[in-house]
Amino acid sequence: MDFLELPKRTTGNRSYGLTSIVDFGTPIGELEHILKDYHPFIDIAKLGIGSAYVTPNISQKISLYQAYGIKPYCGGTLFEKCYLQQKLPEYFAWLKQLGVEWLEVSNGTLDISLEERLQIISRAKDYFYVIAEVGSKDSTQEMPISEWRAEIELLLDAGCKYVITEGRDSGTAGIYDQNGTIKSDLIQELIKGLDCRKIIFEAPTPKHQMFFINEVGANVNLGNVKLTDALILEAQRQGLRSETFFLEEQEWKLLL
């Protein structure tokens, strides 16, 4: 029975308002129990770092996510490892064999030029839905805001379905400083002129998530969410936590 007035949430096969969780090796039995209850709140599952390559039951795990309508993909670290060893054709074939339809193209560890990434995306988009990542895992590296904006626009124009803003699972790089503080000036500039429905902001902690919910709206795309936090995040999105209690009853705070 619905009797509260809450922010309107996208549902079903969402194109925005996404929750992208990170799986760092959840046992498949535990995963099945969690997804049975919480799958309506999860849209995408990133198999963190390069863990997919050494997961014994990787095919079963991918099939389980897909059975619940969740899109699995491998973390960008595995892409970069394959790029470094010149094994991208083998990597793409492996993903196809597993039935993985989404591909992350990143440069969080390696310095892969934007031109090279755009070329890879141009080739890969015929076979995968491509997600690209902007920003470095090195917290000492700073990108001007103009470069963030330009790179996001170029990646989307190249055919990426979404662009991820780097934040690491610790929330201490990319859009965050070394202490985990959000670079709010950067975020304010990014949400002014870009389509936030195409950006996934990495937000690994409830504090980070609440910032984006309040700044962008209930249907902001959030990534690197812990699997066990899926329900809590949905409650935050619907104004059911003190820090989001007065969230406006609307679908998209800034854009719609």
TrEMBL record:
<comment type="similarity">
    <text>Belongs to the phosphosulfolactate synthase family.</text>
</comment>
<dbReference type="Pfam" id="PF02679">
    <property type="entry name" value="ComA"/>
</dbReference>
<dbReference type="InterPro" id="IPR013785">
    <property type="entry name" value="Aldolase_TIM"/>
</dbReference>
<dbReference type="InterPro" id="IPR036112">
    <property type="entry name" value="ComA_synth_sf"/>
</dbReference>
<dbReference type="InterPro" id="IPR003830">
    <property type="entry name" value="ComA_synth"/>
</dbReference>
<protein>
    <submittedName>
        <fullName>Phosphosulfolactate synthase</fullName>
    </submittedName>
</protein>
